[in-house]
Design brief:
The structure holds two protein chains of two kinds. Chain A is α/β, with parallel strands linked by helices. Chain A is 31% helix and 16% strand. Chain A has twelve helices and 17 strands. Chain A has helices spanning 3-16, 27-37, 46-53, 92-96, 165-174, 184-192, 251-272, 276-298, 305-311, 320-332, 359-380, 453-463; strands spanning 72-79, 128-131, 136-139, 152-159, 202-207, 231-233, 337-343, 387-392, 396-401, 414-417, 421-426, 434-436, 438-439, 446-448, 451-452, 472-475, 478-481. In chain A, α7 packs antiparallel against α8 (276-298) and α10 (320-332) runs parallel beside α11. By secondary structure, chain B is an alpha+beta fold. Chain B is globular, with a radius of gyration of 32 Å. The chains are: A alpha/beta, B alpha+beta. Chains A and B meet through α7 and α8 of A and α25, α26, α29, α30 and α31 of B.
Chain lengths: 495, 915
């Protein structure tokens, strides 16, 4: 089965069976449609339904500030921070300095997380080649990715302010290194609402065996109402907490119970008049729909074999590959913001797992095929144009070899580095086959077109049709925004 | 937002401007009525001008934040405001300028005529500068005279007057059943019991309700409910936060809170003990535990982090939290620059910071200083014996003080010099993962400027695998005079770090000490040092009993049968820190040195108050402080009514909302301070005794349109329960709730696999027995992964102080109360109670079930729905008997059916709502 056949098959399927996954209703026309297709199992009359939905639900779709290029985002965060020097930022000069003492000029006045005294320089531990028509340099650690460079813009001159994981991840995801600010996904759903009322607008998938260092705050809603926080989907147990019915309660019985709850709530509303009750009724309806839509969308076993081969997915496992495929399924259902975290990129060289010359290569193998498949799959479905994909860590890694506590390390490792790292973007109105920004000859710091985290955030919001200076929330006496008082859209990478 | 308070500022005054305009009165003709700065002018300036001419930007050299700045010439040499002369005032010139390029504000339409008129009139009348309302002391107010027998107490007079002004009437009194459930949930966080309901219904005496209120205020659940409220403010958690988010033992503080509320500790003492209990004379353990309030700041154990950076972050958090809780002031704005809207200067932040910058905590993994309280009675006994020994043997003049010092040495062991303070390290390192000192043979490390005057012993907290090696303590340089020597022994004690003690030759003045490590033949680190501490030796050497006492002393230092609680300890002598302004908020860029102090705009700091946290705490709760009482009564009001009299409970500044009933707020604040003598119980009682509180909460469409947020209080409160109350109520109604109080936090069931935290082995181990059913405030609170059902109902993660939870209404909440095994078990519990009380008729069972949950009779329409559900469910289980067994674990169709019905009842909006 190829993609066209599959899509045709899907279409037929959706016409013939109850189909909760499609966006059920948008406005009154949508509601009528929902009632016709049986999307809303509780609708006793259309009028009532319209009332219960109300127009004030915080996740109702809202118009952007200007015409957007992207409607959805998939953000692939490589937690722990992958080395740019082994992947995208080719530095032959650094190779020549390999094993030599790091010059004092690079150390004076600088602070590193673990490096002490005078470390040695460390050349790239991978071979680079020009790839694609654009001739973009990519290392041999990403053979699959090398085939899609013409769809991708790589920013090589990223820099950040934080050299510890938790604050750096927070800065990347919330615009501030301290806790308490809303994450990018929360800002986007706050600004644009959700176009699917059977699934949360902001969903989070985690692989690598650990949640990121910043914890749930990396997808928290900060001071925004909690309805905008990311909903974590899990591969084991309930995909969304408590989404499955308890033992002994099937869908039919659950439907009856919710019907009774909502009917009594309606009567309560007639008596006491609190509109919050109507919102609660609609939330119980959505909860009921989520009970099928979430497991459906999370169950990848119905994907055809060629898709599994393409991504390298194995149903039932927790893996970055599975999460990439899930991300595609979620954006297909118009989930606004899909956030992936993949832990395991903290390549200090303290053990095999974190060796640039060891575990790091495994991590590359784990992500290379699926992230490439994701781009290709979105493209063949016509989704890439309106889906912005972002890939990167929270900071970069040093051109020096790590010497933790002044001692020699068992494996080759690089320390945390704020001055330079690489991020790539694809789709959603971003130019393909482009590299932007430049670092110095050893990859220590950006020397041309430097891009700060806040600039990246401004650019991402821009593609969603949001002006980062206007997307604000009044809190503690002032307007807050994702980019604080900074941020410039990186226009040169935009189509 | 719709309704009467839609504009933050009263629209009514604008009306006068419009009327004036209508009459054709214009700029140059002064009007009789004086323009009021706070009421008329500040809102215009705040909205249109202050973003560019305020604390952050001073465009054109002009700022309107402080009077003296506003009256001064700006960059162009002109004066924007010339009191008495609009013609000379550049501001008037610019806001009326015909050229859009010259006109202010620079973007958008010119100011409306009526605003221009107001500003002109104000300058004409002398441009009188006013203080923001919240910075002026509340003035005595006489409750309005109203003629109504609706009134129960003076609160109602204020409410009724406002209603009358709008030609509204208060609602009728809530039914007794509703009122009992409301007040019980409000005061104790729990539903009433059936017995309590019967008693109340049977009591027809005029003070029946008052008796209920008194009973509730005296019940232990009262302290638990209000402690839960305060725990959000205190950002209480059982973990340290940040990446590793390791465990923290601070539950004794939570227990202190419960007791403080139950004892009705006056708010002044409550404040002073939490902010400065350690600075009270000879503080008790409980007073020290109270200071854990500000040790709830996060502690970063992530490898490679700078301890000083995160110590600073914790101190900043203490400043912000203190100002937020007691003063409703957003001090965080002032961290980087002068306040954009309120007259608080950049250096004011650091004056506040200086109060908090002098405690001994330094973001180290142990979280020192920790108060040790001994679990074993005999250890406590030993401590007393040591105190007695010192008292008897020391020089009589200072024996009391010395005995206290020794007790503190055991229970606090301060001031420690942590390993990260070592420098000039040769052949060694400060370990990057946890900041310990590790040095190889032949290496050394220095501590600079140690004051050894009168100190003849040194504690070393260390860990080693070696049984050989020596550390020499040398003076001045690594080959200098040896003043101490430590032969390393294996650390055999029960703790991961052992504390040992060696003699030191006392020195006068400040000394640089070099620790020289020797262990030939050992290729690794000789040992790992956590901290050192210099102190006086135990007195009475040579006297009978000395050896025994000394032995007790070391045993106590190293016992692991202690509860440790992080507390505040003030640094003394040459350990004291200097506070300097961080330029633009950057902690690495230091500006001028500052002394502790408070902003000029508030009540002056009395000279006799000590220049430390104790002084600050006393200043906060002095009757001259205009904010503390207002902010506190407003918080209590918001807890009961869902919204404060000032809606922005943490912002009483000029960007906060104006009070809906300003006179009532001031009246309550004064009552709280003088009438109630800072008693929270008395204050709460006064509010819940009001007719305002006792109204029914039903809302008519008209009233909903007019006052959707119930700011006028023409009806009673209707608010969703808090996360804690949602859980506690479910367990209570199910008959499962444990009434066990206090102790370490518990781990009730949660789904597997939720805790996957980087670099941490901490595990969720489900509690056994009644600990599974404890009240929610005892649930183990891990910041990176709080209890999921609590988060679903809007509990914060407690990383920072949250003054007000935002209530949301989401499908995830429905999934919790429908499917979380905790709630399924609760539904089964309710079903069992139904069967117990009404074994026979179905109708009786359904009525009973509703009554057990809602404490009132079910209406016929609702009963019909439950009957339908019962019938359908029964039929379903008859066809699927195994499903019934799966649900309840019993072959009992009736139990299963009633479990489904009970679950439906426990998912009703009215059940999770206080009405």
């Amino acid at each position: 089965m190829d993609i066209f056949e599959e899509l045709r098959h899907r279409k037929l399927e959706s016409q013939t069976r109850r189909h909760f996954l499609k966006k059920c209703s948008l406005g009154l026309g949508g509601l009528a449609f929902a009632a016709m297709t049986g999307c809303n199992p509780f609708s006793s009359s259309e009028g009532e339904n319209a009332q219960t939905m109300g127009s004030r639900h915080p996740l109702d779709p809202k118009p952007p500030h200007f015409a957007p290029k992207a409607k959805r985002i998939i953000y692939l965060h490589m937690a722990g921070a992958p080395s740019q020097l082994e992947l995208f930022d080719y530095k032959p000069e650094l190779q020549k300095l390999h094993g030599k003492d790091c010059p004092q000029s690079l150390l004076e006045g600088k602070e590193f997380a673990f490096i002490e005294g005078v470390p040695k320089m460390m050349g790239p531990q991978a071979n680079f080649e020009k790839r694609g028509e654009s001739g973009t340099m990519v290392s041999d650690l990403l053979p699959h990715f090398s085939t899609i460079v013409d769809d991708v813009a790589i920013i090589k001159s990223m820099h950040t302010d934080e050299f510890n994981h938790a604050p750096a991840q927070l800065l990347m995801q919330t615009g501030s290194p301290r806790l308490g600010r809303p994450s990018m996904g929360s800002w986007v759903t706050y600004g644009l609402g959700s176009e699917n009322e059977n699934l949360p607008g902001f969903m989070v998938l985690v692989s690598g065996g650990k949640t990121p260092s910043a914890g749930k705050s990396a997808w928290g809603s900060g001071f925004l109402p909690s309805v905008y926080q990311g909903v974590q989907c899990r591969s084991k147990g309930d995909p969304v907490l408590y989404v499955s019915n308890p033992d002994g309660i099937d869908r039919n019985l659950r439907k009856k119970a919710i019907k009774a709850i909502n009917e009594i709530n309606r009567k309560e509303h007639e008596q006491v008049g609190d509109p919050e009750i109507l919102t609660r009724i609609s939330q119980y309806e959505m909860a009921f729909r989520m009970q099928t839509s979430v497991p459906d969308v999370m169950d990848i076993s119905d994907e055809p074999d060629y898709i599994h081969e393409m991504y390298g997915t194995e149903p039932g496992k927790t893996s970055f590959a599975n999460n990439c495929l899930l991300a595609r399924r979620l954006v297909e259902k118009d989930v606004r913001f899909v956030q992936l975290f993949d832990w395991g990129w903290d390549s200090h060289g303290t053990n095999e797992e974190t060796g640039i010359d060891a575990g790091f290569r495994d991590k590359c193998r784990q992500v290379d095929q699926p992230m490439t498949a994701l781009i290709k799959d979105l493209k063949q479905r016509g989704l890439l144009e309106e889906t912005l994909v972002v890939w990167g860590g929270e900071f970069g890694r040093t051109p020096m070899q790590e010497n933790r506590d002044g001692q020699e390390m068992p494996f080759m490792g690089r320390d945390h580095h704020t001055e330079a790292f690489s991020v790539w973007m694809a789709g959603g109105g971003v130019k393909g086959g482009v590299t932007y920004g430049e670092t110095d000859e050893i990859g220590y710091a950006g020397i041309k077109d430097r891009v700060h985290i806040h600039d990246l955030q401004a650019t991402i919001l821009n593609q969603m049709g949001l002006n980062h200076e206007e997307l604000t929330y009044f809190h503690q006496g002032r307007d807050f925004r994702l980019t604080d008082v900074h941020g410039h859209v990186v226009k040169d990478i935009l189509a | 937002m719709l309704g009467i308070f839609s504009d933050k500022k009263y629209g009514i005054y604008l009306l006068s401007g419009i009327v004036l305009l209508f009459c054709g009165v214009y700029v140059l003709y002064p009007h009789e009525e004086p323009a009021d700065y706070n009421r008329d002018i500040k809102p215009i300036l705040n909205k249109n001008c202050i973003t560019c001419h305020g604390g952050v930007k001073k465009s054109g050299g002009f700022s309107m934040l402080f009077q003296e700045e506003a009256y001064s010439p700006n960059e162009s040499g002109k004066r924007a405001i010339v009191p008495g002369s609009p013609e000379e005032s550049e501001m008037i010139h610019r806001i009326t300028h015909p050229d859009p390029d010259e006109r202010m504000p620079p973007e958008g339409d010119p100011l409306p005529e009526e605003k221009i008129e107001l500003l002109t009139r104000w300058i004409e009348q002398g441009a009188n500068w006013g203080k923001h309302w919240a910075y002026q002391k509340p003035q005595p107010v006489t409750p309005p005279e109203v003629d109504s027998d609706w009134v129960e107490n003076d609160i109602d007079r204020f409410i009724l007057r406002k209603l009358e002004e709008r030609e509204l009437e208060p609602s009728s009194r809530a039914a007794k059943e509703t009122l009992l459930r409301r007040v019980t949930l409000d005061l104790t966080g729990l539903p009433p019991t059936q017995q309590e309901l019967e008693d109340f219904l049977a009591d027809n005496s005029p003070d029946a309700y008052e008796k209920v209120v008194d009973r509730l205020l005296d019940s232990p659940g009262y302290g638990e409910r209000w402690a839960a409220m305060w725990m959000d403010l205190a950002r209480y958690a059982d973990s340290k936060g940040y990446e590793k988010d390791g465990p923290r033992s601070i539950w004794q503080y939570r227990d202190w809170l419960i007791k403080a509320f139950n004892e009705d500790k006056p708010f002044g003492e409550f404040t002073i003990e939490q902010l400065a209990g350690d600075l009270l004379p000879d503080p008790t353990n409980q007073q020290l535990i109270a200071t854990a309030f500000h040790r709830n700041t996060m502690n970063n154990d992530e490898g490679g982090t700078n301890d000083e950076e995160f110590r600073v972050a914790a101190v900043i958090d203490r400043v912000n939290t203190t100002w937020n809780i007691w003063q409703g002031t957003t001090m965080e704005c002032v961290q980087c620059h002068a306040h954009p809207y309120d007259p608080i200067r950049h250096e004011d932040f650091f004056k506040s910071y200086a109060y908090f910058n002098n405690t001994a905590d330094e973001d180290v993994p142990s979280e020192a200083p920790n108060l040790k309280t001994f679990e074993r009675e005999e250890d406590q006994q030993s401590l007393e014996e040591i105190k007695k020994w010192v008292h008897q043997t020391a020089d009589s003049q200072e024996s009391t003080e010395k005995a206290r010092d020794f007790a503190n040495l055991v229970r606090l062991a301060e001031p420690k010099i942590h390993a990260h303070s070592f420098d000039q390290i040769e052949n060694g390192t400060i370990t990057s993962t946890n900041s310990y000192l590790a040095v190889e043979h032949g290496g050394h490390a220095r501590i600079k400027d140690v004051d050894l005057t009168g100190k003849d012993r040194m504690f070393i907290s260390y860990r080693t695998d070696e049984t050989s090696g020596v550390v020499e303590i040398r003076k001045g340089d690594p080959t200098g005079e040896m003043i101490g020597r430590w032969d390393i022994e294996d650390d055999a004690g029960p703790r991961s770090f052992d504390i040992t003690s060696i003699p030191i030759t006392p020195q006068e003045g400040l000394t640089d000490l070099y620790f020289v490590f020797k262990d030939p033949g050992n290729e690794g680190y000789v040992n790992t040092i956590e901290w050192v501490l210099f102190h006086q030796s135990l007195p009475g050497k040579g006297k009978p009993g000395y050896e025994e006492t000394r032995e007790k002393f070391y045993t106590l230092l190293n016992t692991d049968e202690v509860i440790e609680t992080p507390v505040m300890v003030e640094l003394q002598g040459n350990h004291e820190r200097t506070t300097r302004v961080f330029e633009r908020g950057n902690w690495l860029v230091h500006g001028d040195t500052v002394k502790p102090g408070v902003p000029d705009v508030l009540n002056p700091m009395p000279e006799e108050y000590p220049e430390n946290r104790l002084g600050l705490a006393r200043w906060l709760v002095s009757e001259d402080n205009p904010l503390t009482a207002r902010v506190t009564v407003n918080r209590l009001w918001a807890e009961l009514f869902g919204t404060g009299i000032v809606e922005t409970v943490s912002d009483f500044g000029s960007q906060g909302y104006l009070p809906s009933h300003p006179e009532l707020l001031d009246w309550l604040a004064l009552q709280f301070m003088s009438q109630h003598e800072w008693s929270i119980k008395k204050q709460l009682k006064q509010i819940v005794m009001s007719a305002t509180y006792r109204q029914a909460s039903n809302v008519t469409p008209d009233l909903r349109e007019l006052d959707p947020n119930n700011r006028l209080l023409a009806r009673g409160p209707r608010v969703r329960l808090t996360a804690e109350q949602v859980r506690d109520q479910a367990l209570a109604v199910a008959g499962l709730l444990s009434d066990k109080m206090y102790g370490p936090s518990v781990m009730p069931p949660q789904p597997d696999g939720l805790w996957q935290v980087v670099y941490s082995g901490l595990e969720w181990k489900t509690s056994e027995g009644e600990d599974k059913y404890r009240r929610a405030l005892y649930t183990y609170w891990r910041r990176t992964n709080p209890y999921p059902s609590m988060i679903a109902f809007d509990a914060p993660s407690r990383e920072v102080c949250v003054a007000q939870r935002v209530n949301t209404n989401t499908p995830l909440q429905a999934l919790v109360t429908l499917n979380d095994p905790v709630y399924v078990e609760a539904a089964r519990g309710l079903a069992e109670r139904i069967l117990e009380k009404a074994p026979k008729s179905t109708e009786q069972q359904l009525k009973t079930g509703y009554h057990l949950a809602m404490f009132q009779d079910i209406g016929t329409g609702k009963l019909e729905e439950l009957k339908n559900l019962y019938r359908d469910t029964k039929a379903h289980f008859e066809q699927n008997p195994q499903a019934a067994e799966e649900l309840t674990g019993k072959k009992d169709l009736e139990l299963a059916t009633l479990t489904i019905v009970s679950s439906a009842i426990m998912n009703l909006d009215e059940f999770i709502t206080k009405s």
